[in-house]
């Protein structure tokens, strides 16, 4: 158990780890930190890109619970060295993401700090939340898109080499319209932020279930974090419907495992540096 | 205009600075940062006290808007050096405050960081929010309790000398029962976190009004931050009711000014280090 898990374990209700967000009375409340030297280095991205990504990774949590994000609160710790032009860029990134997803930035806190540390709370609405605990025996497991590029890009960044501006690592591509349409036909979902293997471990714990892989998944794919692709499960009976919706939205599906009795644990280490 | 104000100005709706929290459809959403070396130094307080205070300063925002805090989300960046015993202490502080105010900790995020940086979101409920914009001409201005001790205690801490464990700087004393009872009879309110003079400037901006002081207020009182006393305004017609409620709850009232046409600006500097 790492430090974060030990800390979370102190909260007996354990709601703190349950899902990407907490579902209460039709609302989903989610909060994620996006800290300099933890989630990004300032050399890697522009301030606008950093602010944009910090919003997107939070909005992702709402979407994969089948919730419509409504409001955002921002806690932004800003280095003393930042110029007004820097602050303007930072604000632009937050506003761009908010506008794209129809979110109102309603409040928060700004303080002066040594590094740029952002925490965001998103308040969303849903009448049918999709949780991590819903995987049933014999369900099919699927992830969207292509995994692996974010791990490669992260390695490239660590070598002080540039990556494409179009990299998912810089600008994650969420799939809200696809997801809201498949939502009635799936049993569980979450986003892939820590890597597929890690998410599967969380899914296994939440649903008390194991997975039988159809083919071995390479570590370069399974341990690639920051992908913000969607991992979900569904009854085979809905396979055609889901395939049709995926085709309509041009989303690639990777059906890679079946839920079986048991539990799944990964031996991979967390990707955060 | 300082950096924080410039950043906030980028958000055109300006809701981000409006009140201690944002009021929407019966809910109040508030979020405050509580960062090491910005709001506290680790030598000053135990981890339990730090966590407790980080919750209390957030709960204070809800109370002064006449809202009942229901849920909390915690973003906690934890130094790698912390032992499991440290984490347990930290969790104890959060849980103590949550229990005291009947709040459920429903989620958040924990990450590994260089220093202890906490951001908290509180979700509260109210049918009658009290805002900063409600001060009317001729209203009386009042603050609760005794101001000044937190500034003194902060100075003592900076001299590396100890302060009393009972100091309001370590353990702010909120007055929810008093406040909820006076709420129907007041026109505006906020808590005193940055110091009375600063809060008056915010109140003046939000209500587009000035203040006529009955007596000069010393800087040792007016610029003492972290007090978490309550600043509020009311029509003189309600003076006796408010006095009676204050007596019942043993709360000291300081009626110090009258609202007049004009605006109020302070020359004092912010207390944050």
UniProtKB/TrEMBL annotation, chains A, B:
EC number(s) given by UniProt: 2.7.4.16
Iron-sulfur recorded as keyword: no
Pfam families on file: AIRS (PF00586)
Domain of life: Bacteria
Leader sequence residues: none
GO function term, MF aspect, one: ATP binding
Positions with a binding annotation for ATP: 108-109, 132, 193
Binding site for Mg(2+) 4: 20, 30, 61
InterPro entries membership: PurM-like_C_sf, PurM-like_N, PurM-like_N_sf, ThiL-like
Binding residues annotated for substrate, in chain numbering: 39, 226
Reaction equations catalysed: thiamine phosphate + ATP = thiamine diphosphate + ADP
Binding site for Mg(2+) 1: 32, 109
Residue positions binding Mg(2+) 3: 20, 61, 191
Single GO BP term: thiamine diphosphate biosynthetic process
PANTHER family tied to this protein: THIAMINE-MONOPHOSPHATE KINASE
Family: Belongs to the thiamine-monophosphate kinase family.
Note: Reaction mechanism of ThiL seems to utilize a direct, inline transfer of the gamma-phosphate of ATP to TMP rather than a phosphorylated enzyme intermediate.
Name of the protein in question: Thiamine-monophosphate kinase
